[in-house]
Specification:
Rossmann fold, alpha/beta, 15% strand
Length: 272
């Protein structure tokens, strides 16, 4: 392909017109440029990390994950070993650190203690969501929190194995853990439960993420695994935006739409 002087002249004239248009936009609308820095747009959604509690694994979020993904969120459910609080915090922290951009971290039950430690000091975590979960302060145990109110029925349904891991008595799980699920669903939970090392109830985190990160809390009004009054106490103490629902200890299974809605409310609240 050959370039005649006339074609070259036309090319440079076109280039000058384009440059002129860009300069005009920048000079007359500087805010439009400043508002969208390179690599960032207001439409980017945060990633969501879901952290299961005791006697469960990441698949417990199976009814919430599709709802969040349908709405455009990247979701990761952590698979914690439940071998110690420190192990679970470390595992969850690795998953949080692997996310791109801002992150919303969600914890259920014992998983609340895990996210409290794992998200601490992480500037990418924009919100914490506690689903009927523990919210310990630094140096505070789950046992100490449970001692503030009457113990729930779950407390007398735990069965240890020879290694010190705890299970929920299969005959009692439906009543004390998932009363608003069907009998068939509760039997699956009983058969697939993942045990928690009993020592975790007396282990602590070194810092509490909720002290610096905005928090949301879902109180399960018919919870028989954590006293609902304790849930209200913890939600108030951390200054969480609190919602209550008529649910057992597993609202993500019995009321997944409401749980997804709360998580998305946290995800869409502007960062101050």
């Amino acid at each position: 392909m050959s370039f005649t002087p006339k074609k070259v002249q036309s090319f440079w004239l076109l280039l000058l017109v384009i440059v002129g248009l860009v300069v005009n936009v920048v000079m007359h609308h500087p805010d439009a440029v400043a508002a969208q820095p390179l690599g960032q747009t207001s439409s980017i959604k945060p990633s969501i990390v879901l952290v299961h509690g005791a006697f469960a694994d990441g698949s417990s979020w199976q009814r919430v994950i599709p709802l969040l993904e349908r709405d455009g969120y990247t979701v990761t459910a952590v698979q914690n070993p439940l071998t110690s609080l420190a192990d679970d915090v470390a595992t969850t922290k690795r998953v949080i650190d692997a996310q791109k951009g801002n992150v919303v971290v969600v914890g259920h039950s014992y998983g609340g203690s895990v996210i409290t430690g794992a998200a601490a000091g992480n500037s990418h975590v924009k919100a914490l969501v506690y689903i009927a979960a523990y919210t310990p302060d630094a140096g505070e145990t789950i046992s100490a929190l449970n001692g503030k109110y009457a113990l729930p029925p779950l407390a007398t349904a735990l069965v240890p194995d020879t290694a010190g891991f705890l299970y929920v008595d299969r005959a009692k799980l439906h009543d004390v853990f998932a009363k608003d699920l069907s009998t068939a669903e509760a039997r699956v939970l009983a058969a697939t439960q993942k045990p928690l090392i009993g020592a975790a109830f007396d282990q602590t985190v070194t810092s509490a993420a909720w002290k610096t990160i905005p928090s949301w809390y879902l109180v399960a009004q018919e919870d028989r695994a954590i006293n609902p009054e304790l849930e209200r106490f913890m939600a108030k103490r951390i200054g969480a935006k609190t919602t209550e629902i008529k649910s057992s200890h597993v609202p993500f299974l019995s009321h997944p739409n409401e749980v997804a809605k709360l998580i998305e409310a946290a995800a869409t609240t502007p960062v101050k």
